[in-house]
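Note to self: the last two entries modelled the partners one at a time, which told us nothing about the interface. This time every component goes in together.
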Amino acid sequence: MLIKTENLWKTYNMGGEELHALRGVTFCIDKGEYVAIMGPSGSGKSTLMNLIGCLDTPSKGTYQLNGRQVASMNDDELAFIRNKEIGFVFQTFNLLPRATALHNVELPLIYNGTTAETRIDLAKRALEMVDLADRMMHRPNQLSGGQRQRVAIARALVNNPSLILADEPTGNLDTKTGVEIMGVFDRLHEAGNTIIIVTHEHDVAQYANRIVHIRDGQIEREESGRKRAA
Amino acid sequence: MRQFIESVKIALAALWANKLRTTLTLIGMIIGVATIIAIVSLITGMNQYVAAEIDQLGATTFIVDKEGIITSEETWWERMKRKKLTVEDMNEVAAGCQGCEYVGGREMTMRKVKAGNRYVNDVFIMGSTANYPQIVNFEIEQGHYPTEADNEHRRPVAFIGYDIIDELFPGMSHIGKTITISGQEYSVIGNGKRRGSTLGNSHDNYVIIPLSTFEKQFGQRRSLDIFVKARSFEGIASAQDEVRMTMRARHKLKYADADDFEIFTAGDIMSMWENFSRGAFIVMIGISSISLIVGGIVIMNIMLVSVTERTREIGIRKAIGARKASVMWQFLSEALTLSVLGGAVGILGGIAVGQGLSALSGIPMGIEIWSIVAGILVSGGIGTVFGVYPAMKAARLDPIEALRYE
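The predicted structure of the combined assembly is written out below.
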């Protein structure tokens, strides 16, 4: 069991009024699973993603990630967990604009004290895995959208995390490039990585084994991905 | 350490990306540090110069005169009323001092010096005893200094400085020539070595004549400066005591009366100069501190802008595992790099300014290692102090908010 949440609540205080973004979410994800979290905007899927990604802590409930209780951790402990366990892929890529692809991929390793030599070695290998070996010294503005997202995926992979968490990874890409990127996720899944994709697009969600639908802060229903079921 | 080098690299890259902004940001810091370095260099140079100049007077020499070293208007008025010192005083001092090797005297005025149709204005005319060169380490180049006999016979002979040679006898021999001072003709018998100038004041602008000749032509109303060379460095104090006793007796001072003359050594002049330069130093440090503080505030401001501009970058770094301390350190080292860079440019600027001023004014300059180290430390310290708040702001950003920032 990689992820186990029990009765997760997240409540925001908006000008004295309590707003429940999550109302008791309980679910489990096993190692090696490929899960899509779907829901319309305002459903609480972003909040759930932030909790799963250890960017935030729940107001109530427990969250166990890879055997560790995360719910009560402080900021620095969360940072450590994010660095070690989670690889993020964002809709807007979120690369450092002035840094080369290689340096962007190296970044997570800087924060866990990997030596420079090993760092460059690992970063190169991660870039090779996303077929960008020939673009290592390019800056983000010298790369296409698809290439940027592949750099971001390489960055997510470089630390060998137990979970890759992608938030609308194809949202800023054209359809063809989106398919390409989803192909990359497929390959990563086949190689044994656990992947969670947060999306509001059905087509994208269909790549997963399992689709979790969120509505009004609760799990509405679960289904199997069409592509896998077929 | 690895992280530090990493941070400095990131910082330099960020600063390089904003060259104009970096430059503008650093102006305050540069001016502040440059001022300090320039001033320290010049004061150091002056100290060395004064020390060398005073050294010429000799460690065993002391001066007895009416005014002493005057540090305030009141003392000046008070000392002006004192009895003048005379040649008789000098002779008595010489007779009553076992510990004195030489006792000489000197009087001075300023006059125009002519030769033919050439002339020099405002020349120091000095009447001195024949032993004056031995007392103050005065170096003779050609001819000879006015002798005991010249003094005794009040001969109109003159020993001149290089300014007089350059102006009155350019490219000609000057020994044996005649110069005129206030209508009296003098025959040139020698000249001193060229000594150059400081602060635009030439040290070669003098004519020396026998003391008795001086008093005959310019009158006896001036007070004599008595120059004494003690037999040994250890013997200065006792020589001074002997001189003091003689002078007090001649002035008929009672036991409780204070001296109505002054005795001082080269060391006294030196320590007075040091007091003065310390004061100047403190004032200047105060002034440049203001510019350093302004420089620090500008750095803080630009770091706050930088934190805002790079909110998203901070979000990314936090998302992939940067702890608070890492983010804090990143921005702190950027502020530190920025300010130390400013400090370094300021040091170079200060040395350049110091050298420029030195070349223009003739004040010598001496670069002190400690002032360079202090420049780096001060600028680094300011960068740290003013960088802490922006860095803390960056470190405290919420990663979710920061990632969402447009």
